[in-house]
Amino acid sequence: QILIIDFGSQYTQLIARRVRELNVYCEIHPYNNLPELSEDVVGVILSGSPHSVRDEDAPVIDLTPYRGKLPLLGVCYGAQYMAFHNGGEVLPSTIREYGRANLTKVDNACPLMKDIPLNSQVWMSHGDTIKSLPEGFEIVASTESVECAAYHVKGEDTFAIQFHPEVTHSLDGLTLLKNFIVGVCGCSQSWTPDSFVESTVAELKAKLGNDKVIMGLSGGVDSTVAAVLLHKAIGDRLHCIFVDNGLLRKNEFEDVLDSYKHMGLNIKGVNAKDLFYKELEGLTDPEKKRKAIGKVFIDVFDAESHKVEDAKWLGQGTIYPDVIESVSVKGPSATIKSHHNVGGLPDFMKLKVVEPLNTLFKDEVRRVGKSMGIDAKLLGRHPFPGPGLGIRILGDVTAEKVRILQEVDHIFIKGLRDKGLYDDVWQAGAMLLPVQSVGVMGDERTYESVVALRAVSSRDGMTADWVHLPYDFLAEVSNNIINQVKGVNRVVYDISSKPPATIEWE
Ligand code: XMP
Predict the structure, then answer these.
(1) Which N-terminal residues, if any, form the signal peptide (predicted)?
(2) What are phi and psi of 254, to 5 degrees?
(3) How many angstroms separate the CA atoms of 338 and 256, rounded?
């Protein structure tokens, strides 16, 4: 595997994704919390950083365990760092070194630069620049304004580049990374979804032995793929629990339960709708609603998990971005804790945690799911928030409002599927607004609810844009909703992007 040492660049995850695209396993670790060097590591990449090497608080690291012993590739800050700390000169650049540039000099004899054509477009993004290199460091590529775009340390497998090979604007970036990873480090490119499944199942078998695992499923991609992997390893010793909180999409509980049973999972469906509705009664504040939903879920899940005797583990669908963004308090355990900081943790929270997907990116989870034969429809599902329709019904939540919104949502989502638009959208749904608007029906005036439809495109939910759905499609959906859903007489379409608007309305 390749070790990626992270100095905090926004691009570090992207480096990892590119390495994985080359079917080579890699891990990102922060420079200030590195694991002991494993024998499996055959090469090291130093990432970029928002810092300048000249900053007083710039990240520093002892490179002795790596340099000269393993192939090493410095990217941006990583390149400047090695130059600076070996006697080179790194200064603020006087000209703009952001954006596209072209290589005006390339030394194709250098293994890093093999097959990289002259004029190749590269992506620069740095405030500092290397002005002079230490003894024994030789330039292997230049652009018009950046003489030292790439260098090699003589007699070592140490290389560095000031541009970013991981972004797609560096057109030969993947070739360059391949030169390093395959050519220099000698990686075999054998890390595929199938090999991941094989090795993960073997590891899970060894780790779990005859232990029982409890896991909550939601119908989401991550928990489903994690459960199927665990099931492959320990069969019915994996006890899955799927709670109907009464805030799911129309028919979702039955449909998803059915597909889990088809997959052979040992799953128990628990209808707890009324408990959720009761706890939500009269609550209008979004955060209070979220907390109420979280609290009931924990109580129900705890009661169910006590029915599984001797369970030792809690299975979770945590994925890699959740792990590497660990600075933010994300994930179910963080929220769960806040509800139980008075009475102590519920028992299932004291179980050991097993997270078979915690080294994978989202698209890799899908590929692994596909390689295990999980239905493409399930793998391609839009994200759906844990509190479900509870936060799409603005204001207080009642069973009747849930029914109305389920019908509306169903018409919208089914319409997207029928028109082949579903996969062009990252997430879609409907909101029930807490306003009544006037309408006419026959000779009479009506005061009925307004619903808002939302469909966004996004990569990761952090930023999003509204999707320009065809007018004809919107017209048809609006007609169907108003004609078929009693209690709704007006449909609006949300045309706000995130930021500043969020995806959900609460
Ligand atoms: P926002 O509304 O913050 O949503 O733009 C970004 C993504 O997060 C989902 N979301 C939630 N997911 N619990 C969840 O599990 C929540 O309380 C929650 N709130 C928002 C939202 O659906 C979108 O995918």
Answers:
(1) none
(2) -65, -45
(3) 29
Q: Give 101 Cα–ligand 1 centroid separation in angstroms.
A: 38
Q: 88: Cβ below 6 Å to ligand 1?
A: no
Cβ-based burial of 333 (10 A; exposed 0-12, middle 13-18, buried ≥19): middle
Ligand 1 pocket residue status of 99, Cβ below 6 Å: no
Which residue reads 């006419």 in tokens?
440
Please report, as a single letter, which amino acid is at residue 3.
Answer: L
Q: Does residue 383's CB lie within 6 angstroms of at least one atom of ligand 1?
A: yes
183 secondary structure, DSSP code: I
Q: What is the pTM of this model?
A: 0.81
Tell me whether the omega of the peptide bond preceding residue 346 falls within 30 degrees of 0, making it cis.
no
Q: Where are the chain's structural domains?
A: 2-184, 193-379, 400-493
As a whole number of angstroms, the distance between CA 233 and CA 295 comes to 31
- Complex prediction ipTM: 0.99
- Which of 328, 338, 389, 504, when mutated, tests ligand 1's pocket best, judged by the most ligand atoms within 8 Å of its CB? 504
The CATH class, in words, for 400-493 is: alpha beta
Q: How far is the CA of 232 from the centre of ligand 1 (A)?
A: 31
Binding site for ATP: which residues? 218-224
Task: Name the residue with the closest Cα to ligand 1, atom 11.
Answer: 385
Distances (CA, A) of 484 to 41, 411, 488: 60, 9, 9
How remote is the CA of residue 385 from the centroid of ligand 1, in Å? 5
Question: Is 193-379 in the same CATH topology as 2-184?
Answer: yes
Class in CATH terms, 2-184: alpha beta
Catalytic residues: 76, 164, 166
Ligand 1 neighbourhood includes 183 CB (under 6 angstroms):
no
What does pLDDT average to in each consecutive run of 10 residues of the chain (506 residues)?
92 90 92 91 95 92 95 96 96 80 96 97 90 96 94 97 92 97 96 94 97 95 97 98 98 95 97 98 97 96 96 94 52 37 72 94 92 93 95 97 98 98 97 95 90 93 92 98 96 95 95
Is 290 close to ligand 1, i.e. is its CB under 6 Å away?
A: yes
**CA–CA gap between residue 138 and residue 140 (Å, rounded):** 6
Q: Is the CB of 105 under 6 A from ligand 1?
A: no
Residue 343's pLDDT is what? 54
What class does CATH assign to 193-379? alpha beta
Atom 10 of ligand 1, nearest CA residue: 385
Nearest CA, atom 21, ligand 1: 385
- State residue 336's pLDDT score: 38
CA dihedral 420, 423, 424, 430 (to 10 degrees): 90
Give the nearest ligand 1 atom to 462 CA. 6
Task: Give the closest residue to 120 by CA, choosing from 181, 89, 61, 165.
Answer: 165
